[in-house]
Design a protein that fits this description.
Organism: Labrys wisconsinensis
Radius of gyration: 20 Å
Oligomer: single chain
Number of strands: 11
InterPro entries: Alpha/beta_knot_MTases, Ribosomal_eL30-like_sf, rRNA_MeTrfase_TrmH, SpoU_MeTrfase, SpoU_subst-bd, tRNA_m1G_MTases_N
Enzyme class: transferase
Domain RNA 2-O ribose methyltransferase substrate binding: 26-99
Shape: elongated
GO molecular function: methyltransferase activity
Structural class: alpha/beta
CATH class of the largest domain: Alpha Beta
Strand content: 15-25%
Number of domains: 2
């Protein structure tokens, strides 16, 4: 017996998680890790796997790209929060590289998330972004979930197709986008214009606000246009992840065919 308080193990895991460098992406669980291992654009740093998980990777002929560390499940437990379901796999990797604003072309779309905090919503947005060939997702360093865990599971592999960029000052970033010719369109349920009647061109940034507060004042002021999705029913607003999917569909119909591929 060590005499450690019963709650100490969870505290120890949280302490361990905080030691990871901020520029490292942590992925765990079968689907997120397998997708990352199969992505040639993802630079891998460290892979921990249980014997059973490694055997399953080998059976599915997944190329690892680096030598795994064979561990017991408890060794992965100590690196994560107590409620994390890792299925015997833990991966540290570099973030995906995002294109510079000046390199975006006429068929490119980026998403800008203004303090959207729910990892389920952001994960669903990432999945839609991958389906509609979004070039990058920009979000705030603060008041946004890390690209791991619940978010990665909700994204269902989408993290391997769309870079997520955390920016310190969203307003300055929107300024820079405008200076590089990016059309900035904010989604607002109170917007005067309807999105599918708004003239759209690429490169295009669709800007989405937080679930409860919408776009912040400065964010709104830096958009070239504010537009709403036309809702004929009694409810005039959608969950932000559903709104993102519909907005991307409208944008893709308005822009030239295609989109940036990883």
């Amino acid at each position: 017996m060590s005499g450690r308080p019963r709650g100490g193990r969870g505290h120890e895991r949280r302490e361990e998680t905080r030691r990871i460098a901020p520029d490292i992406v942590v992925l765990y669980g079968w689907h997120p890790v397998r997708e990352a291992l199969q992505n040639p654009a993802r630079r891998l740093r460290r892979l921990l796997a249980t014997e059973n998980a490694l055997r399953r990777l080998q059976e599915e002929r997944v190329e690892l790209g680096l030598a795994p560390e064979i561990v017991r499940p408890g060794e992965i437990d100590r690196l994560l929060t107590p409620d994390a379901v890792h299925q015997g796999l833990y991966l540290e990797a570099d973030p995906l590289a995002a294109p510079a604003f000046g390199d975006l072309g006429p068929n490119d779309v980026v998403l800008v998330l203004d303090q959207i905090t729910d990892p389920h919503n952001v994960g669903a947005i990432v999945r839609s972004a991958a389906a509609f060939a979004v070039a990058a997702i920009l979000t705030t360093e603060r008041h946004s979930p890390a690209a791991t865990g619940v978010l990665a599971k909700a994204a269902s592999g989408g993290l391997e197709h769309v870079p997520i960029v955390h920016v310190r000052n969203l307003g300055d970033t929107l300024d820079e986008m405008g200076a590089n010719g990016v059309l900035r369109v904010g989604l607002d349920s109170e917007g005067a214009a309807v999105l599918d009647e708004t003239p759209l061109r690429g490169p295009l940034a669709l800007v989405l606000g937080a679930e409860d507060k919408g776009l912040r004042v400065r964010t709104r002021s830096l958009c070239d246009a504010l537009a709403r999705l036309d809702m004929p029913g009694a409810i005039k607003s959608l969950n932000v992840s559903n709104a993102a999917a519909l907005a991307l569909y409208v944008a893709r119909r308005a822009l030239p065919p295609g989109g940036r591929r990883p």
